[in-house]
Amino acid sequence: MIYFDNSATTKPYEEVIDSFVKVSTEYFGNPSSLHNIGGKAEQLLTQARSQVARLLNVKNSEIYFTSGGTEGNNLAIKGAALTYRGRGRHIITTSIEHPSVSEAINQLEQLGFNVTYVPVDLNGRVNAKEVEKAIRSDTILVSVMHINNEVGTVQPIKEIGMMLKKYPKILFHVDHVQGAGKVPLNFYECGIDLCTISGHKFHGLKGTGALFIRDGVRISPLLSGGNQELNIRSGTENVAGMVAMAKALRLTLQKRETGIHQMEAIKDTLRKELEKIDGVKVHTPKEGSAPHILNFSVRRFKAEVFVHALEEQDIYVSTTSACSSKKKSPSKTLIAMGVPEEEADSAIRISLSYENTMEEALYAADKIRQTIKQLGEVMS
Q1: Which of 190, 245, 336, 372 is the most buried (most CB within 10 A)?
Q2: Which cofactor does it need (predicted)?
């Protein structure tokens, strides 16, 4: 099996699963309980928080555990908007955000907030100057993803963050879900106030994640109850999941040190091989894109047909983001980039992990070439 759908989810490391099982069976107590079993669970949770903070180069007090990227983005955006609505009701975002951002903001629009959607260029990149042009006296939040989940474009987060320092009343939220473990991001240098990561994108378990909230920033909780996570996120903590996520992040960052050049070489090889094939157009920009995402279209073929044809070859890729793939609508990112709808309808995403090999890439490229030829013969 060749698994090239790592932006949808990654396979958990064996060590991560072992860690989850050990904590679940031996340290199963509620960390809010007063007895010793609860105390041990609380200690493990504290250690996991400290490890995640250290790996992200932030303070322990700035890490809040969540159930993943969707909750983290919703908590950051809605929590900030509700807290600071007295300052204003204007939010700035881009036209290519993940649904967990765009739909959260859409809900706020229905509650009376105003939103400006900044466009992107032909490479799927937003311009910091366009973000600044959108700022109004009542702007309270800017939300821009770090790595686009469909085409892999890296956004100018540092440039936007530095610009926003001129507007200290505006919070800056970044969806770092696709970047964590692949593309470094210094939260402090980039002036980020709120930042989201998700465990299952870097070989952790589904249902685990974290939200960075810069010290001094206040947000309203979305879940009320037992006041866990310093009153930000109520609910009994998933101790085993967070311990496992901390281990997954550590292992992934270690693999990045030795594997990033290999990943870049694999992506470059796939691009070169795909560009040789008649009818294929690569949408991921050559410069300024993440090392693990490659998006391309195959002329005349619906994306889902091609995905299933490759699946028969035991090669697994995706269409748009996993959250949108079953809607059978063209990629909103590609449409925003000016790609014709017919091309956007046939877009395929390859997404790599440090576990993939050059041999897999060459084999997959050959099978893609053969599949295009076979499907073409059937259609003609």
Answers
A1: 245
A2: pyridoxal 5'-phosphate
